[in-house]
Write a structure and sequence with these properties.
CATH topology of the largest domain: MetI-like fold
Mean pLDDT: 87
Helix content: over 70%
Largest sheet: none
CATH superfamily of the largest domain: MetI-like
Radius of gyration: 25 Å
Order of helices and strands: HHHHHHHHHHHHH
CATH architecture of the largest domain: Orthogonal Bundle
Number of strands: 0
Structural class: mainly alpha
Length: about 325
């Protein structure tokens, strides 16, 4: 069947199936006594969601864990793939690079986003500045990577950075070759994309701070730096934490920027690229699954922290 026709059929079939299921559920529930129907209706209503959750999330996760215990020939080898991961130079390099991403990306993104949010707050051209800063979010990470590949190009006639360096009398610099500085250059691309996101969230939190509180601090003799350090930043800290944890999760699972700009070469590989290479380049599903499990385990603590902080904020309200 033609892919376009298949997509149209799927778009039409899904709503029809959903409506038919709802009608069927109500028809079945009404055949039971009221007390039984009251207990049965919620179960039947959430059944499709639970089924989809199991099929597309829980089952793949369990299958990935099982495959991580098998070798290429589907023989059980226990923790062999995990031992292989932590004893190889290339995978340890990927871990190192991910650690650099986790530290520098939130630092760049949240730091610059916070500075912009504070500087443009309550000025006439605020919306214009925010629109310009947020604009990179409108394109994909692959498109941004292509743009920055041209910026980092070694040829001064193409690369903006090397054109600037040579204009100042220097020699062209291979920005994406020397490790670990090439990882820092890739992180700049991610920060360029995500700074607008951080700025918008932090700006919203800044708008929630009472102007009377800020004016009271100024009346008491505090200068602008003291107002920011003693009043604004402590009140923004929960929002900063939420944005930072979100960016950390992105840093842990980053893939497209590295894949597009370096392909993981020149020791710029991260865990997600290692997983891709193991599965599609080396045909090692067991090693790829083990890498995926390690990445998943690394993200879990960040998610727990984020959920707990969200619950604390909800409890305070």
């Amino acid at each position: 069947m033609d892919k376009t026709l298949l997509a149209v059929v799927a778009l039409v079939a899904m709503p029809v199936v959903l409506v038919a299921y709802i009608v069927l559920v109500e028809w079945v529930v009404r055949r039971f006594p009221d007390r039984t129907a009251l207990k049965l209706r919620p179960i039947l209503w959430i059944l499709p969601a639970v089924t989809l959750l199991f099929v597309f999330l829980i089952y793949p996760a369990l299958a990935t864990i099982w495959f991580s215990l098998l070798d290429r020939s589907q023989n059980f080898i226990g923790l062999g793939n995990y031992i292989n991961f932590f004893t190889r130079t290339d995978t340890l390099t990927a871990l190192r690079n991910n650690a650099i991403w986790v530290v520098l990306l939130p630092l760049f993104t949240v730091g610059v986003g916070l500075i912009i949010a504070v500087l443009v707050d309550r000025v006439r051209y605020e919306s214009v500045v925010k629109s310009v800063i947020f604009l990179p979010m409108a394109i994909s990470f692959v498109a941004a990577s292509v743009i920055w590949s041209l910026v980092y190009n070694f040829d001064p006639r193409i690369g903006v950075l090397n054109a600037t360096v040579t204009a100042a009398g220097g020699e062209p610099i291979p920005w994406l070759i020397n490790s670990p500085w090439n990882t820092v250059m890739l992180i700049v691309v991610g920060a360029w994309m995500l700074t607008g996101f951080a700025m918008v969230i932090l700006s919203a939190g800044l708008k929630g701070i009472s102007t009377e509180l800020l004016e009271a601090a100024r009346v008491d003799g505090a200068n602008e730096w003291q107002v920011f350090r003693k009043v604004i930043f402590p009140l923004l800290l929960p929002t900063v934490a939420v944005v930072a944890t979100t960016v950390v999760i992105f840093a842990l699972k980053t893939f497209d920027v590295v894949y597009t700009m370096t392909g993981g070469n020149f020791e710029s590989e991260v865990i997600a690229n290692r997983m891709y290479a193991e599965l599609f380049r080396f045909r090692e599903p067991g090693r790829a699954s083990a890498t995926a499990v390690i990445l998943f385990v690394a993200i879990i603590p960040i998610m727990i922290i984020n959920v707990r902080r969200f619950r604390e904020q909800e409890a305070m309200r």
